[in-house]
């Protein structure tokens, strides 16, 4: 369909990121705008620091398990031994999928994009959960959050096997979330290094303040839609490559480059075509993403157990990207973000590039659900305004009097 915006109005809507219209400040992309408060996590973009409820992710990445972090986010404090054991039991008990969801996965075309499958299956889980008779809403509570956190990896792993023509593997309740995810993909319990790497990845990805997908989840929850609706909005929003869809494309670059010595020429050619380097740059961080530091080390160590090439190429790609971006975008402060070393890390764990974003969702489900519960606990409908940039009030034009020569608006 043709775009009916006039050239002038389109310019008004897409010009500088910040402008003033009739006393209303408009900021495309809400850059720098504080739209709410949270106790869950804090991103300090200039210092390059990320904390979950006050704990530095550098400490959490080294010391905490994903289950401890999920507890911290959902319940406000680190669990004691009893609380942690209890959460692990609850997660283990909630991993199994309803039979009709498994049957639907089996009936889904094998070529379906994993994020489409995950988004649809997460939405579908709502149908197997009790709901309020008046409004169809499911209770948004920690029990539902645990169900979503537990089932997300099962969906991803089941689809991985089904699309490869294999039978899904039943989850094992006694394994950690990370070990169970890897087990459900292969049927083999992972080596400790692989379990630890994925566990750390899930810790690092668990929350990130009001990022786009979390904001989407909170907007949905703010209408009193339930936690399944909020989680579905979040997954839909994660998909794009300006957010969680980048790491698969980083891996494509690494595979295309093939060997470290070719990284520089590859990046120069890409930037000269006006393309963005995936895995580089961040809206909040103006230094190297603090999560990239840990992911780089993990990618390097995993290379010792699988193929060291992926880390070596990624390292050369980051160096080349820094050099080229300093030349072409001076003063922009574009550095490696969380997605950059996610690619060689997950690839070394045997995860396919088109499943990277789904694996991201396995960790972030803890943050999304915690944000939804925080929103529900202190709710106010999120409903901003827009600055109107269309035509002024105009008299009605009868059908026969409208322009006929132009093809504008005709669907081709
Ligand atoms: N490669 C090349 N140039 C980049 C870039 C990248 N990865 N990231 C930003 N830039 C450039 C833009 O072209 C722009 O340059 P210009 O002002 O000369 O046109 C400038 O830096 C600012 O970009 P902008 O899009 O306004 O910044 P943002 O805050 O919206 O960007 C991202 C944040 C993440 C969307 C952006 O860095 C990006 O697209 N990165 C690649 C995708 C990615 O890694 N996504 C995962 C994010 S965790």
Describe the structure.
The protein is mostly helical. Helix content is 53%, strand content 4%. The chain contains 17 helices and five strands. A hairpin with a 2-residue loop joins strand 1 (18-21) and strand 2 (24-27). Helix 9 (192-205) packs antiparallel against helix 14, helix 9 packs antiparallel against helix 16 and helix 15 (309-328) packs antiparallel against helix 16. The longest helix has 22 residues, at 142-163. The protein starts with 6 loop residues before the first helix and ends in a 35-residue tail after the last helix. 43% of the residues are buried. The chain binds coenzyme A.
Instruction: Give the biggest sheet.
Output: 3 strands, antiparallel
User: How much beta, percentage-wise?
Assistant: under 5%
Can you count the helices?
17
Strand order in space, largest sheet: 3-4-5
């Amino acid at each position: 369909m043709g775009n009916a915006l006039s050239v002038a109005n389109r310019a008004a809507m897409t010009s500088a990121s910040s402008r003033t219209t009739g006393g209303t400040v408009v900021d495309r992309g809400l850059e720098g705008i504080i739209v709410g408060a949270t106790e869950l996590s804090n991103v300090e973009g200039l210092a390059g620091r990320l904390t979950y409820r006050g704990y530095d992710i550098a400490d959490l990445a080294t010391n905490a398990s994903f289950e401890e972090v999920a507890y911290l986010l959902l319940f406000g404090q680190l669990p004691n031994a009893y609380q942690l054991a209890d959460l692990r039991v609850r997660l283990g008990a909630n991993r199994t999928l309803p039979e009709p969801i498994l049957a639907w996965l089996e009936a889904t075309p094998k070529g379906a994009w994993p994020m489409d499958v995950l988004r649809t299956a997460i939405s579908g889980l709502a149908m197997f959960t009790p709901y309020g008779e008046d409004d169809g809403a499911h209770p948004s509570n920690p029990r539902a959050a645990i169900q979503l956190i537990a089932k997300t990896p099962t969906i991803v792993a089941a689809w991985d096997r089904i699309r490869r023509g294999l039978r899904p593997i039943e989850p094992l309740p006694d394994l950690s979330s990370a070990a169970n995810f890897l087990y459900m993909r292969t049927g083999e319990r992972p080596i400790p290094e692989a379990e630890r790497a994925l566990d750390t990845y899930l810790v690092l990805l668990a929350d990130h303040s009001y990022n786009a997908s979390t904001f989407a989840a909170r907007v949905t929850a703010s209408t009193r839609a339930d936690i399944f609706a909020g989680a579905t909005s979040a997954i839909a929003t994660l998909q794009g490559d300006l957010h969680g869809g980048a790491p698969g494309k980083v891996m494509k670059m690494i595979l295309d480059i093939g060997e470290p010595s070719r990284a520089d020429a590859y990046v120069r050619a890409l930037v000269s075509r006006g393309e963005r380097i995936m895995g580089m740059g961040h809206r909040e961080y103006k230094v190297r993403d603090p999560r990239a530091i840990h992911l780089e080390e993990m990618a390097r160590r995993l290379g010792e157990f699988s193929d060291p090439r992926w880390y070596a190429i990624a390292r050369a790609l980051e160096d080349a990207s820094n050099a080229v971006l300093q030349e072409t975008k001076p003063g922009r402060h574009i550095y490696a973000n969380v997605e950059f070393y996610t690619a060689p890390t997950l690839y070394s764990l045997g995860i396919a590039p088109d499943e990277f974003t789904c694996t991201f969702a396995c960790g972030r489900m803890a943050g999304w659900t915690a944000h939804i519960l925080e929103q529900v606990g202190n709710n106010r409908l999120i409903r901003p305004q827009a600055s109107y940039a269309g035509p002024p009030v105009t008299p009605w034009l009868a059908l026969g009097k409208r322009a006929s020569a132009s093809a504008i608006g005709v669907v081709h």
